[in-house]
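Researcher: Please predict.
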Amino acid sequence: MVITHLSGKPSEESPQKLAAFDVDAQNCFTPLCPEELPVPDGHRIVEALNRQAELADFRVGSKDAHPETAVWVASEEKPQLSPVNGYENSDLHWNAHAIPGTFGFQLLDGLPAVTDYDFFVWKGVEPDLHPYGACYHDHAEKRSTGVIEFLRCQNIKTVLVGGLALDYCVKLTVLQLLAAGFRVVVNLSATRSLQSSTGKQAITGMAEAGAIMVNDYDELVSVVDLPDSHKKVVSH
């Protein structure tokens, strides 16, 4: 059991632990939902996400959760990626996606139920909010979703990150975690980018900010300091 002070800070006696973060691993970001925001091969990351989670003490996740009436929903007059004017927390127009109750809103098949995660974030519920990173509800990063505080209270030092899409929500979540002082490892086999060009830019930006980039599970294991109990799992 992790002992925490009333301040929410972990005690010095608590062991350092790992967390795995599944960022927005939803059907709407895959070819399964071609009218939403299909990320090429986005539906093929489940195995990699589950394998990296086996290395972690805690598994956290996030979902986009958007209303049909969001101010940023694209139309013929306001096409996707055109700027949104007049709203500080919505910058671009996007196809409608991740509407609660739809197939697109659901997590990818093969991932845990939302209630089986140790901590979960729903973001973008308000019509004028379209955050990308999973750590804050607003673009100014003043309204925490609580995930940073949860990780700190559990004495997490390293976060293993995957999800969708690499060039938007994954990238900004990684940058937010780095700014909060975590060691962040991005597992490229557990994520995909919406576009090749912006994906490459995201990888460069995250690496320059201090993230450790790995291509697959074997590289992930090599850079993560695993406790003995986890090493036995990996050896099998």
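Model: The chain has one domain: 17-224.
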